[in-house]
Amino acid sequence: MLRLHHAPMACSLASRFALAEAGLAHEVVVVRTARGENKAPAYLQINPRGKVPALETDDGVVTESTAILPFIADLAPAKNLLPPPGGFQRAQAQAWLSFLSSTVHAAYTGVLRAEAFAGCDVEAVRTVHVARLSAALEELDAHLAGREFMLDAFSVCDLYLLVFLLWRG
Fold first, then answer.
1. Is the bond leading into 53 cis (omega within 30 degrees of zero)?
2. Cα(28)–Cα(165) distance, rounded to whole angstroms?
3. How far is Cα 51 from Cα 31, in angstroms, rounded to an integer?
4. Are 132 and 107 spatial neighbours (Cβ–Cβ below 8 Å)?
5. What is the rounded distance in angstroms from the CA atom of residue 124 to the CA atom of residue 66?
6. CA distances for 25 relative to 46, 89, 158, 160, angstroms
7. In the Cβ-directed half-sphere of 129, how many Cα atoms lie within 13 Å?
8. pTM of whole model > 0.70?
9. Do 6 and 30 form a contact (C-beta atoms < 8 A)?
10. pLDDT tens sequence across 29-50
11. What distance in Å separates the CA atoms of residue 95 and residue 92, rounded to the nearest whole number?
């Protein structure tokens, strides 16, 4: 049985969407990060980094969206949520997942939680990250111009992007 540890409106929402789209039997455990539940000893046993998502499987725990989303896609290959492993298209999908994580998500962190950068001028941090986020979203807009999906077909990349678009508010 798969068990997803998820915080509402966090990036873990993409994994929750992917599990539903894949049609895989799973359980969702809500982790209220705003209340610090992700730092509780019981949760740190699941994910010592104290972050969501964390996906418990029969083989162990998988963490990080860029690992969990392809894992889910591979568990339901008939759903075509990612191109098959080993090819150029899969590498392109992985590149987009990495961009969303390392560029878009990182920029949002600086915009929405600038105070997390200890000892820094919060407004200066926010200003830098707003510029980074703007550039990243412009790149995504350019890529999506005339396209329906990030790849040639609907994929977990679209589900991950959806979370960040929800954050745009």
1. yes
2. 22
3. 9
4. yes
5. 29
6. 20, 27, 21, 20
7. 23
8. yes
9. yes
10. 999 999 999 999 999 999 999 9
11. 5
